[in-house]
Amino acid sequence: MPTIYEKRTYSVTVGQMPEVVRLYSTLGWPALEAGGFAKHCIGYFTSDTGELHQLVHLWRFDSDDERRAFWKRLSEYAEFGAFVKQLRPLLKTQSNQLLLAAPWGSHP
């Protein structure tokens, strides 16, 4: 089975990106690392052109079963839950997209 990449895009309420960045820096990312979840993360990005006020993150999984188990474990992880409770009110929307690597070129 090919590697699955998951792109998650969060639309942040205008003016709240500095607070989102602060929360991820001080609570979110440290919780991901402490719980062993960060190893699946390819990276986090903020939009600079096009649709603004977006936080995009990419994740890599060996299978859809692994992906589903990962998000279930993360949702049950108390330290991350405390972060999410503060993050959610700052977000307008969330979209998730599953991607498969094309059979040519490089892949992360």
Determine the fraction of residues in helical runs and give it as a percent range. Answer: 25-40%
Number of structural domains: 1
Radius of gyration: 14 Å
Q: What integer is the average pLDDT?
A: 96
For the biggest β-sheet, the strand order reads 2-3-1-4
- Beta-strand content: 25-35%
Report how far apart the termini are: 17 Å
The number of helical elements comes to 3
Envelope shape: globular
For the biggest sheet, the summary is: 4 strands, antiparallel
Q: Describe the oligomeric state of these chains in a short phrase.
A: single chain
Q: Assign the CATH class.
A: Alpha Beta
Instruction: Quickly give the structural class.
Output: alpha+beta
